[in-house]
Task: structure prediction
Amino acid sequence: MKSIIMALMGASLALFGPLASARAAAPINPQADLKAFQGYFLKRFPNVPLAAYVNGPYNFSKSEADQWKQIMEFPPYQFALDTGKSLFNAKFPNGKDYASCFPNGGIGIAQNYPMFDAKTGRVVTLGIAVNRCRVANGLKKLKLTTGPMADILAYMTSTSDGKKINVVVPNNPKALAAYQAGKEYFYSRRGQLNFSCASCHVQEAGMHLRGNVLAPALGMTASFPLYRSKWGNMGTLVRRFIGCNKKVHSAPAKPDSAAYRDLAYFLTYMDNGLPVSGPGARP
Amino acid sequence: MRKTLIAVSAMMVLVPFLAQAGGPSKAVAAKAISNAAARIKIAEGMNDQWLATLAAFKAAKAAEAKGDFALAQSKAMTAETLANLSIQQATVQKKLWVNEVVK
Result:
C-alpha cells in the first residue's frame, strides 16, 4: 500500500512539474473512448473475458473469489431484495406507485441508466429517477446512498439481471458535455494524496491495496447496488464514490451533484455491452 | 482549598484575556475566516476540496465561537493555504488530465 502510494505520488509530482505538457484536446467521441477503454483492459488482462469484468475484484484474487462463492450460498443482499420488492410495489398515498413513473413499469430497465434528460439538460441516475417519482407523487426524496433507496434499486436492478448495459449519449451538446465532464472527473487527480480514480482503477487495477484488490474500472458499475461486508449493509454507486474520494483525502461531492451524475454517466457508458449483474456482494 | 479555587478561576478569566490583549482581534479573525471561505468556495466549484481544508476551517470557526481569535486566525490561514493548494492542483489538472486517458 505504502509503496503504491509513494510511487503514485512520485509520478504525480513529476506530472505537476513544468515539463509535463498536455496533449491537445481531442473532440468528444464516446464511442471511440468505449472501444479504447474496453480494448485497454482486454489487452492487459488477456485471461479475463469481457463479461467477467462485472465480477470486479474476484477475477484477481483467488481468496476473495473463494470467499465470494461461500457468501453467495446465502446472498447477503437477499433481504434488501425482498424489502426492495415490497417497497417498489407498495402504493403511494395518492394511489399511484413507482411503476407509473417508468417505462415498462420499471421492470427490466436498469441497464438504460444513467440517462440523459433533454428537458433538464442533466444526467439522471436510476436513484435520482426514483426520487423524482417520489417528489412527483408528493413524497420526500430518499437518501441516495443506502437504506430504502438501495433496497429499491436492488430490486429494480435484479429485474435487469443479465441484460446488456446500454447507456446512451445522444448527440446533444449538453449530453456530450456531461459525458466529457464525467470523463474529466475520472481522470483528474484530486485530494491531498493527488490521485485520480484512474490512478487506482486503471494504472493499479488488479493490484492489492490494504488487503483489497483494486477493481479494474471496466465493469465497476455492473453490480451496484451491492452488499459490502465492511459496510454491513447495502450501498449504491454514489456511496462508493464518496468512500473512494475520502480515501485520497478529498471531500466528497453531494450525492445528487452534477459531478457524481456525470461520473456515473461516463463510468457506466464504459460498461456498455457488459451484463447487469446487480445486486452484488463484496467483502 | 478556597484560595486555590479563587486563584484558578481568576486565571481562567484572565489568561484568555491576556492572550487576546496582544493577539489578533475579533475582526482580524473574522477577516481570515472570510478569506478562507472565499477560497474554499472556489475549490468546491473546481470539484477539488481537501478534507484537511474543511477540518481546519471547522476548527477556525470553533475557535472563533469560543473567543480564541488567535487560534481562529491561524486555523483560517491554514484552511486558506490548503484551499489554495487544491485550487492549484485543480488548475493544473484541467490541462493534465488528458495525459491519463487510456488509449
Notes: Residues 10-20 of chain B have pLDDT under 50 and may be disordered. Chain B touches chain A through 25 residues (CB under 8 Å). The CA atoms of residues 30 and 48 of chain B lie 24 Å apart. Helices of chain B lie at 2-22, 26-45, 51-66, 69-96.
